[in-house]
Amino acid sequence: MQPPFDFNERPFIVIWETTQACDLACVHCRACAQPLRSALELKTHEAKKLIDEVAAMKAPVFVLTGGDPLKRPDIYELVEYASQHGVRISLTPSATPLLTREAIIRLKQCGLARLAISLDGPTADIHDAFRRVPGSYDWTLQAVRWAREIDLPVQINTTITRHNLQYLDAMIALLEQLDIVLWSVFFLVPTGRGSDIDLISAEEFEHVFDKLYQTSQRVKFDIKSTEAQHYRRYLLQRRTELKRAGKQPLPMPGAMTSDGIGRAPRGINDGKGFVFVNYRGEVFPSGFLPVSAGNIRKELLAKLYRESPLFVALRDSSKLEGKCGRCEFREVCGGSRARAYALTGDMFAEEPCCVWQPVAHGRNSETAQEPNAALQAKTGELQDASAH
């Protein structure tokens, strides 16, 4: 058993947007990436100070993202520095000619714990249409092969939108052929270049949840969701159904994967176990919720995370509005604060893409009508099957 993890004291996941520079032009890019680096980016010494702060907070997961981290010449130095200071690094490069076999080998030599790379379709036509650069699909699969040749664990990130929803079965079939440790399924938040017309419906969310759940019962890799906190509600309901039918559910995912990149002990949400630092040092509850709590060039990351009114409020479930505020699953879910903000302008509004109606209104089946206290007690059992 892991000791309790207090999200009021430290985040489980810290993500740093190393740069907005990228040679792709993805249709749903959160960062609105551009070809050239900005002079406002954190300098190397500032980046090392951030790494020191992450190490001091003992955050289990530190992700270097972008843009494309490989656009920074000092990225290898920073990965090595983090590794030497006890910070386990996951890096999300773009699939471009910069992501060579030599680059991947060097990253592992510097101490990289996991390579996380995006794959948004089962064929070149579908994926490259997302990335808007021909060849991205082939570069992606080649990078996966190169990483596995040197035993560097690989995570695949997929963003679910209306454009690729129909290809989900083919996507899963392709992933089963790849030797990956985790499939991270992102559910679109209409921010940056993402458009709300690309957002799938609440009913389609449920269909995807069912697909992820059924897939998780048979594949070797873990599956987690990003910005679909209500997947946790779905998982608890399915487990409850099995137990009532006298069947034993499969164990929930462990808290630690083979590469040492941890899994959260309970439900993460924007600002609750999760913090995002952008290329200028601005601190946000997530990369999809563009409200700043301050800047690490002026204040310590730990202070901003623990004490800023923004983060404190986001960790207070009593502030949730609409059906999220009444929901018996609010402590293990809480809905996407980023999506609520993107679609309503209110970060505490109810999750716009959830079909569930709270039990208090008497409109639900019996599959999940357990006392609220019992549901909250199950947060430890979840081991964050969906993560953030």
How would you characterize this protein structure?
With 388 residues, the protein is α/β, with parallel strands linked by helices. The chain is 33% helix and 12% strand. It has helices spanning 44-57, 75-84, 101-109, 124-131, 136-149, 168-175, 202-216, 231-244, 301-307, 309-314, 322-326, 337-344, 372-377, 379-382; strands at 13-17, 61-65, 89-91, 114-118, 154-160, 182-187, 222-226, 274-277, 282-284, 294-295. It has a ten-stranded mixed beta sheet. Helix 7 links the parallel strand 6 and strand 7. The radius of gyration is 20 Å and the shape is globular.
Short description:
The chain has 388 residues and is α/β, with parallel strands linked by helices. It has helices spanning 44-57, 75-84, 101-109, 124-131, 136-149, 168-175, 202-216, 231-244, 301-307, 309-314, 322-326, 337-344, 372-377, 379-382, and strands at 13-17, 61-65, 89-91, 114-118, 154-160, 182-187, 222-226, 274-277, 282-284, 294-295.
Descriptive keywords:
10-stranded mixed beta sheet; alpha/beta
